[in-house]
Task: structure prediction
Amino acid sequence: MKIKDNIANIVSITRIFVAYGAIALLYIQTTWAYVLAFLLTAIAFSMDGLDGYLARKLNQSSKWGSVLDILGDRIVEVSYWTVFAVMGWISIWFPLVCVARAFTTDGIRSVALSKGYTAFGDTSMQQSKIGKFICASKFMRISYAVAKVAAFMFLIVVYTPGIEIWQGLPALKFITMALAWIAIIFCVVRAIPVVAESGRLFEE
Result:
C-alpha cells in the first residue's frame, strides 16, 4: 500500500485511535486528563471531515474509502456512547439504539455495495429526494456530526473532576442531555430512508 495514495484512508483509521486515546483518558479521574480527552475528542471529529476533504482534494475517493469512513464513524460513535453509559452519565439505551441502528443500516448497505451502490455520492443507494437529503446531503451529515460532537464534548465537560461547574449551572446538565437526545434522534432518523428504500435491493 502506497501511503501517498491512501492519505485520506489513513486519516480515517487514525481518528479511531485518537478517539480511543480520549476515551482511555476518561478513566483517569483528573481534571487535566479530562481536558486532554476533550481536546482529543474535538480532533477526532475534525478528522472525520478532513478525510473526506482529502479524498476529494487528492482524488482518492473510492468505494473502499466510503466503507472505511462509515466504519470509523460507527466505531467512534458506539465507543463513546458505550463508555458514557458504563460511567453512568447516560442511559444504556443510547448505545443499544446506536448499535441496533448500525447493524441494520450497515447490513443493508453491504447488500447495496455488492450491487454497485454506495452510501453517499453519485452512486448513492438512496433514490428518493427525501432519502438523499436525510442520508446523503452535506447539510444532514454535518448537522449529525455537530450534534454528536457537541453532546460528547458537553458530557466530558459536565463530568470533569475537580470543577463540577454544572452544579452551579443546573441548566448546563439539561442542555447536555438535550444534545445527547438530539444526537440519538438524528441517528435513528437517518436510518429510516435506508430501511424504507432497501426493498428494491433484494428484488434485484
About this structure: The mean pLDDT is 83. The longest helix spans residues 31-57. The CA atoms of residues 164 and 192 lie 38 Å apart.
